[in-house]
Amino acid sequence: MRRTWWTTAATLASVALGVVLVVAAYAMASRHGASQSHYHVFWLGMTFIFTPLVLVLSAKETGRLARLLASVALGLATYLPRFVRLHTAPLVNDEFGHFQQSEALFRTGRLFAKNSIVPPAQDFPGLHTLTVGLRELSGISTITLGAVLVAAFHVLAVVGIYCLASSLADDRRVGGLAASLYAVSPSFGFFDSMYAYESFAIPLLIWSIVCATHLIEARRRADRRYWVVALVIVAGAAVTTHHLTSYVLIFSLIVLTLTHRLGRSAWVVSTARSGRMLGFVALVLVALAGWRIVNSETDLVSYLSVFPRRGAAALVEIFRSRTDSGSSPTGSSAPAQPVRELFQGSALPGYEQYLAYLISPVLLLLAGIGAWTQRRLLNARTVALCVLGLAYFASLPFVLTSGGSPGAHRSWAYSYVGLSVVAGLGLSRLAESLPRLLNRMLCPLVIVAVLMGNYGSAVPDAERFPGPYQLGRDGRSVTPELIEMAKWFGAHEGRGKPIVTDLRTAAPMVAYAEVVLPRFPSWELFFPTVAPRSQFVDLLYERGIRYVVVNRRLATDHYYSVPYFHDQPAPPSNPLPLASIDKFDELPWLTLIYESPNFRIYRTVDREIGLGE
Amino acid sequence: MNATVGIPSRWLAFGALVVLAGVATLFPQPARAAVVLPLAIGLPAAAIALVGVAVGLRYETAVGVGAVCSLALWSLTTLALLWVGVPLALSTQWVVLVGLVVLPLGVLESVRRNR
Predict the structure, then answer these.
(1) Given this model, what pLDDT does residue A334 score?
(2) Is B115 on the interface with A (CB under 8 A)?
């Protein structure tokens, strides 16, 4: 009893100290972002949080309630950095899109409204309906509710993996280790901490798999009824929330059904009726997802296949250039660089970069041990999770390509569902084979190392920490000045107005002023250093666009990562010539209506006056 | 004996919490949000978890299924009501009626029968 009290007190003290250190790291980063000292304080804090929680989760003597509470704390801990980074406003591009979608739905009550920032969001309103329903009832703002919901999604995802692995191995310790491994997966800490549809869809996917695996094992009618109802509710919500997650879910259910059917006579102990029910649910989901694809305003097939196509093309090009000439594929003859230089110009500390290379072999080893120890207990659930986990290793070559790496990074939220369970089993078996002290230390050591490596491989410096302004870079390009301008526009000029501006100025304008971004060759206005050609001015009037929003930093700062405008040709220079921006003051068909140090809003004058020029 | 005594007391506790949730919608912020939000998610979650426990689930699994189903039901029912043209304010009242009153009472009745 006394020992339990001390363990609890020490765990709480360590976690509290860790939280203080993480908050301090963010305060340091916002004051002097150039040095790396905030990284060291950040990792010290995360180590203080994760080590005692993993110790609790991996100890044999831990009770059921303590293990569950530690899983909950782990889920919250993974959201802590993003919460401290910014939780009072959207931070990255996609968040602005989903924020705007929920705000518009709350105000108008109209589903499927167009979304200029994240076009598929208009067809998948699950997150937005959840938000507006709870907002209407509780009266709190979208952004605050978003932070509460994302914290809940994190807890649900970690507890879901804990339940999945515990029941699979019939061992809560394995469940705790699998939950720890999922909690440190690459996209969980930041990408899946956005207020965005996939953040809600991922716990729905995990719990759908929990329901499906229990359904397969259910022997009593009452159990089957419970699990099939739960599966229909959770999977139904997943299909209405996020495209990619619903396809991964359908794939997982089909694999489960097939392995169950094929292997039933040999090594699966379950009932045929459960399998038929699962197959039926999978078919209904296929029909629902197909219906969404057909009825979607967005071309989902093209949207989702961009990164795999680019990645595969780059891999083929790399392979060809190596076999044809034996020369480096990064040679200057290539029109676009297919190979991505990992950590080129990175601000990350060296230990994160080294660990990023190390974790894949470690995970392969752990997953191998896990699969090997389960070989005699092979069943439909294990096979389905192994297939999902293998997708992680299949995605690794794509990380080396410029076109395919974003797709590979996004796939890890799904492949880690299988990988964490199988590798968690392996980690548990490996730790059991070691002497007591090493056994105790191995689990937190591996988990913290995987956390560091995964952050190093998937969370860019700009997204993780505040720092100097960087034009066009997620996490660093939205300023209070920009948000103030967007709010001013919404308040003074009204909502739903069509505008022309660059992509990064557009996101907050859409979120706070609900502007519309019609198809228009914006570069024809912004790139020239003299007055734009009259045909494009005519087109501007024809499309009813009354506003041009100009970010002066286009001519003073280097533009990172993304193009200035959709479908643009190569810009004359980066940054643009100052004359490209200054010329707007001289154009007779524009009137300046708003000015701040870096932004200007112009309104077009009446057409009759413009024609006189 | 425990079951016959336990069910009505849980039934009453649910009823009291539903009334509290209803009254709390009149509170000023942040008290309104602090009371209403946990109850709006927690009551359906607890009801579904109770059924899970009744069919013999581990309690952590039952709690998890309850919580995730609660969020999923909020999302799906609001979506369905908005889709058929019910205004948001009215649809929320429907969800409250279904989520906070009918669902908990229905599942508690189901638990009682199962026992």
Answers:
(1) 41
(2) no
**Contact flag A160-B51 (C-beta cutoff 8 Å):** no
In angstroms, the CA A441 to CA A63 distance is 20
Average pLDDT over residues A435-451: 90
CB spacing of A111 vs B75 below 8 angstroms: no
Burial class (CB in 10 A: 0-12, 13-18, 19+), A574: middle
Residue A119 DSSP code: G
SS3 content of chain B, % helix, strand, coil (to 5): 85, 0, 15
For Cα atoms A167, A268, A158, give the angle at the middle one, nearest 5 degrees.
25
Q: Which two tokens stand for residue A355?
A: 């660990």
pLDDT at B1: 38
Residues 6+ apart with CB under 8 A from B102: none
Taking CB atoms and an 8 Å limit, are B71 and A152 in contact across chains? yes
Greatest Cα-to-Cα distance within chain A, rounded to the nearest angstrom: 89
Q: What is the distance between the alpha carbons of residues A176 and A532, in angstroms, rounded to a whole number?
A: 62
Using alpha carbons only, what angle is made at residue B18 by residues B14 and B24, rounded to the nearest 5 degrees? 140
Task: Compute how many other C-beta atoms are within 10 angstroms of the C-beta atom of residue A611.
Answer: 12
Q: Quick one: which of A422, A414, A359, A364 has its CA closest to A157?
A: A414
Q: Which two tokens stand for residue A504?
A: 């990064």
Averaged pLDDT score across all residues of chain A: 86
Q: Check residue A328 and report its DSSP letter.
A: -
At A68-82, the pLDDT tens digits run 999 999 999 999 999
Global pTM value = 0.88
pLDDT tens for each residue of A575-588: 888 999 999 999 99
